[in-house]
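re: ur question from earlier - yeah i can do the single chain one, its not a big deal. heres the input i used so u can compare w yours
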Amino acid sequence: MKIFKHLTAEAWLTSGLALLGILGVVFMTQLVAAPKLLFGRSLTAIPPTLFPTLILGTMAVLAIALFYSLRGSLLSTVSKTFEEGALLRVVMLFGVMIFYALMMEPLGFFISSALSMCAVAWLAGNRSILQIIVVSIVSPVALYLISTRGLAVSLPELSSIEFFYARVFDASAAAVSGAEGASQ
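and the output i got, formated as tokens:
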């Protein structure tokens, strides 16, 4: 048991991520609800477990690869795993992720993602307010559009935000079709 005392933070992180990824893939059917059926057919274009399985499987493979690449430096004679307030930051990050999971449904994807990204950026040490705001707005919008439009994944969102996205897409589609009609 002495070996656990001298594991570095990188060893703990990579082994934890690999374990979480593997467990997520194994228990995927308990993590993702079955899709709604209409006349015996699914309403989604892809199975709802595909995207989470890809993400968790990729996370597990990358964590194992990182663990392998760090194999020579995973032990330290002096443990620096929880120095300088690192444990408090880990607990606060866990709290932010719990907040994100619990607020996804009532606040919607965009607002809960933006708030969580602000908190994570602050915990990571970023103090540039402009950079935090830009990243916290652009990233959730890009993730929402890629997930809903490209991957056909349904994400919880407030109706007002969904209506805004719909108006933007309708306006851009009308502008594109108007430009094509004018060029012909």
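The longest strand covers residues 37-38. not sure if urs matches, ping me
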